Amino acid sequence: MACIRYIAPDVDAALAFYRDQLDFAVDKHNPGKFAALVRDDLILYLSAPGAGSGGQAGGTPEPGRWNRFMLVTEGLDDVLARLRAAGVRFRGELSGGGAGRAQLVEDPAGNLVELFEFKRG
Q1: Contacts of 51 by beta carbon, 8 Å cutoff, 6+ apart
Q2: How far apart are CA 13 and CA 32, in angstroms?
Q3: pLDDT, tens digit, 9 for 90 and up, residues 61-87
Q4: What is the rounded CA–CA span in Å between residue 26 and residue 37?
Q5: Which of 44, 90, 98, 100 is at 20 to 30 A from 28, Cα to Cα?
Q6: Domain positions in the chain
Q7: 70 strand-pairing partners
Q8: What is the pTM of this model?
């Protein structure tokens, strides 16, 4: 099992994004402060800045750098069309080099998620 923590100034908006757009299930939710979401073997922790251990580690946690996690998907074109229709923000263009195709999307705080589809055959 892998766990990732993202900083989200609006935890509730980020929770809705991951639940409604990327098919995460909500495990725990402390409105405005914290959420734990699950998809397959991944646990995603969303924390408000200054809440819990993220705010006590020194410095000021901020969302939106280039760190990201990757979700492997099939039917990437359909997924991207659904996300565009929902008004999700994209970063950069769809890439097609290497082992497959990928597109970066931003959660409501600007944290990145890479949607990836392996080449067929």
Answers
A1: 33, 34
A2: 9
A3: 666 676 788 899 999 999 999 999 999
A4: 5
A5: 90
A6: 2-118
A7: 114
A8: 0.78
